[in-house]
Amino acid sequence: MSELHYLYGKPTATADLRTVNSDFIVKEILPFSPSGEGEHHLVHIRKDGLNTVQVAEMLAKFAKVHPKEVTYAGQKDKNAITEQWFGIRIPGKETPAWSELNSERLTILSSSRHSKKLRIGALLGNRFILTLRNVTNVEDIISRIEKVSQIGVPNYFGEQRFGHDGKNLVMGRQMLAGKKVKDRNKRSMYLSAVRSNLFNTVVSYRLANHGTKPLAGDCVMLAGSKSFFVTPEWDLVVLKRLIEKDIQLSAPLWGRGKMLPQGEAAEVETLAMAELSEDCYGLEHAGLEQERRPLLLEPQGLKYEQTEDGLVLEFILPAGSFATSLLRELVDYQDVKELQWQATVTPDANAAETNTASETDSAEAITTDKGESAL
């Protein structure tokens, strides 16, 4: 991630992130309320020091159902305190006494029946409360917060998408070159890493060379939607929509089919991807269709508070985005939990970690983007 372009220049402030789990708090925001009836049970939990898969296994065992009957909208980091929804299909059975699962690491916040399955990506967004410690040059962070609130930050996929030391990307390229990977979840994760790296590369190249200005032939997205259309020229009407944030600039989630942008925008993306032609070819033959993702990430309700312990940031991000992509524009941080892991892991364990899903700060599941689970 360090080689990617900084929209406001590399931060001069430094800080520690995730000194303790409570420094990283994430709360899911569902776009609906449970219906109150049906064979699906929606359970709202708070977890501390557990990853999503561990909780899903606990719920399946407690409800005495197959693990496949337990679903969630997005994965959450183990080294954090997170509030998350799980769906458990229990046809023809009484409602379990979910509160019996309560422990120091897991709390049942609420539960209700629902008529539909909880699916990957079924989130409106996530609320974050992050505490930075040992902060230097707070003034620089505050000045950047003001800029970010107005313009946003590059909508990069965070380093979590690529695994420790980028091993998911390495495995993805090996898989596209012919290496067999039997596990469907791992195939999806590796493929997603390749696609995400290509997206990051295009975003970084465009912002470094053209900033946030619109280009002729841009493929723009309707705000809050996956719908898009091409703008051969930027007339006053379309430009006004961009300024009012009714539409957004975008970058490619690569797949088969004709390149979506035209003219100057297409030329810029072609140049950005020139050295990744093998990745493009592999994605085109992996069953993925071309899609788009917003170029910029615009946090909502971004605010800060200076405390005796450091600086507390609070904001809301849409589903599928990464809190670390916002943080990297504000402060040159070090992830304490990650450093602790690196200091204790053995070479053998490190190799094994390559085959483990890396969970996202953004509370985004590996296959949130439509089509990324094709392999």
Concise summary:
By secondary structure, the chain is of the alpha+beta class.
Description:
Residues 350-375 are annotated as: Disordered. The chain is 30% helix and 24% strand. It is α+β, with helices and mostly antiparallel strands and 375 residues long. The strands form four sheets. Strands 1, 2, 3, 4, 5, 6, 7, 15, 16 and 17 form a ten-stranded mixed beta sheet that branches. The chain starts with 13 loop residues before the first strand and ends in a 22-residue tail after the last helix. Mean pLDDT is 90; it is low at 349-375.
Fill in the keyword field for this structure:
Pseudouridine synthase; globular; alpha+beta; 10-stranded mixed β-sheet; 375 residues; PsdUridine_synth_TruD_CS; single chain
Provide the low-confidence segments as ranges: 349-375
The CATH superfamily of the domain at 156-294 is TruD, insertion domain
Q: Determine the CATH topology of the domain at 156-294.
A: Pseudouridine synthase
- CA radius of gyration is 21 Å
Helix content: 25-40%
The SSE order reads EEEHEEEEHEHHEEHEEHHEEEEHEHH
Largest sheet: 10 strands, mixed
Beta percentage is 15-25%
What distance separates the N and C termini?
A: 25 Å
The number of helices is: 10
What's the mean pLDDT score?
A: 90
Structural class, by secondary structure, is alpha+beta
